[in-house]
Specification:
The chain has 515 residues and is of the alpha/beta class. The chain has 14 helices and 18 strands. The chain folds into two domains: 177 residues, 3-Layer(aba) Sandwich (Rossmann fold); 283 residues, 2-Layer Sandwich (Dihydrodipicolinate Reductase, domain 2).
Length: 515
């Protein structure tokens, strides 16, 4: 199998990167793992790339007892760990704009002190009224914090200009339809929908965003992007890592809530939705919701036939012995929580009727691999039967999201040699080879969009409601039959029950490998 690598000329690249306006960022849970691993490094990279206004500041809020200077030191260490070596003077110019407020989330006085500090910082840094409240805390604290912000006059829903005050909410967006609705009602008492940014970091990945560009900025794909030419679509999020330090959270969530309800369904919507009338937030999100509404409703019977769940046992990953899920820290020794989900869904509309979408996500698999693979129908008749080529391989288009970002198109072509010498060629585009280096961290894109007031890549409440409504039958079925859980060995690519889901229709899962 040969590779053909394309090149992109500078004059063919159109960029429209906007710089952030003046803005204050207030982070709750400021000493937590998410903030240290992702957020601080991402904001710093925006700063280093010159995409932040000079008029910005960050205020960390939490229970840990830091002074401003102590927190700046902690931030500097976190940034260095996240992005590597940084010139000391550049890092200092960044951390000089960082502050800290210690307090108890339950105390009204905490929010009054935040309001007083923001009033001063807004004047010092000249940011006007634009600010972001980032909830890097467990969801059970969301209600307490938004109520406290409102009581201190920091949310202003319904008032002119309130959209300049934004609330970023991390997943999970509830644990089911009921809890999602309850969470939304609490938040919307204090913030309007146009102020709320529900963040799904997968939608900020360059290759996920590229799905929209790939589909709707080119004319050659749209004519074949339908049931007449596509045989099936596979979406895979495979992880070689286990639950690591997240055992306490994960054992209550599981793969369906942690990955399937948000990341996988979000990618499915981008791949399958109709063209939006324009590239603005509401138009794109309208089409996402319409697509999710077209997914064939699930029943108890279809859950039994179209969903498979598994849990990893002890095994070997990357040459190292690893424990099974039930032996992970903070996991119940008799846990029935799934670490793997495979599913077959159908989209009931004119474009996709009867085209199966095979979806899977799992932990402790053979390797890390996230991709969307579109397999086209085979040629209806081969004229090369006499040469032993009666069953020609199908063309495939693979959008590879991680760890190596790129696009792969496979097709049949003649090889040098005899009159009928044919082989599969691969036309491969790699982000690293063409653009150099790694694509920006997804949080950079999403944080910048939030500062700009662009909600395109953020999840709207009706999107959350539709996805939970779709999965309610699955949650009920698994709660009623906890025995519907299969064991797979850590380091596996798959297991028999998951294989049967796709093999029953004469298809196979794609190998977990890089492009």
């Amino acid at each position: 199998m040969s590779d053909i690598c394309p090149t992109i000329l500078p004059q063919e690249i159109a960029c429209a990167e906007a710089n952030a306006p003046p803005c204050g960022i207030v982070v709750f849970g400021a000493s937590g793992d998410l903030v240290r691993r992702k957020l601080l490094g991402s904001v710093f990279e925006l700063f280093r790339r010159g995409l932040l206004s000079e008029n910005f500041y960050i205020v960390g809020c939490g229970r840990s007892n830091f002074s401003d200077e102590q927190y700046r030191t902690d931030v500097g260490n976190a940034v260095s760990e996240s992005v590597g070596d940084v010139p000391p003077e550049l890092l200092r110019s960044f951390t000089d704009k960082i502050y800290y407020i210690v307090g108890d989330y339950e105390q009204e006085s905490f929010y009054k002190s935040i309001a007083a500090r923001l009033t001063k910082l807004n004047k010092v840094h000249n940011v006007g009224g634009r600010r972001i409240f980032y909830m890097a805390v467990p969801p059970l604290l969301y209600g307490t914090i938004v109520k406290g912000l409102d009581s201190a006059g920091l949310s202003c829903p319904g008032l002119p200009g309130c959209e300049q005050i934004r609330l970023v909410v991390e997943k999970p967006f509830g644990a089911d339809l009921k809890s999602s609705d309850e969470l939304n009602k609490i938040i919307q008492k204090h913030f309007a929908e146009r102020q709320i940014y529900r963040i799904d970091h997968y939608l900020g990945k360059e290759t996920v965003q590229n799905i929209l560009m790939f589909r709707f900025a080119n004319t050659i794909f749209e004519p074949v992007w339908n049931r007449n030419f596509i045989d099936h679509i596979q979406i895979t999020i495979a992880e070689s890592a286990g639950v690591e330090h997240r055992g306490g959270y994960y054992d209550k969530a599981g793969a369906l809530r942690d990955m399937f309800q948000n990341h996988i369904l979000g990618m499915l919507a981008f791949v399958a939705m109709e063209p939006p009338v324009s590239f603005d937030a509401d138009s794109v999100r309208d089409e996402k919701v319409k697509l999710l509404q077209c997914i064939r409703p699930l029943t108890e019977q279809s859950v039994n036939t179209d969903f498979v769940r598994g849990q990893y046992a002890a095994g070997e990953v990357d040459g190292k012995n690893v424990v099974g899920y039930r032996n992970e820290p903070k996991v119940d020794a008799s846990s029935a929580t799934e670490t793997y989900v495979a599913a077959r869904l159908f989209v009931d509309n004119w474009r996709w009727q009867d085209v199966p979408f095979y979806l899977r996500t799992g932990k402790r698999l053979a390797r890390k691999n996230t991709e969307i693979a579109i397999t086209f129908k085979k040629v209806p008749h081969s004229m090369f039967v006499s040469a032993g080529l009666g069953d020609l391989p199908a063309n495939t288009l693979v959008i590879h999201i991680q760890p190596e970002e790129g696009i792969l198109l496979s097709f049949q072509a003649k090889r040098p040699g005899s009159k009928v010498c044919m082989g599969t060629l691969r036309m491969r585009f790699s982000y690293a080879e063409v653009f150099g280096g790694e694509p920006p961290e997804a949080y950079q894109r999403l944080l910048l969009d939030c500062m700009l007031g662009d909600q395109t890549l953020f999840t709207r409440q009706d999107d959350v409601e539709v996805s939970w409504t779709l999965l309610e039958p699955v949650l009920r079925a698994w709660a009623n039959k906890p025995s519907m859980l299969y064991e797979y060995k850590a380091g596996s690519e798959s297991f028999p029950q998951a294989d049967r889901l796709i093999k029953s229709e004469g298809r196979t899962w794609r190998p977990l490998r890089e492009i």
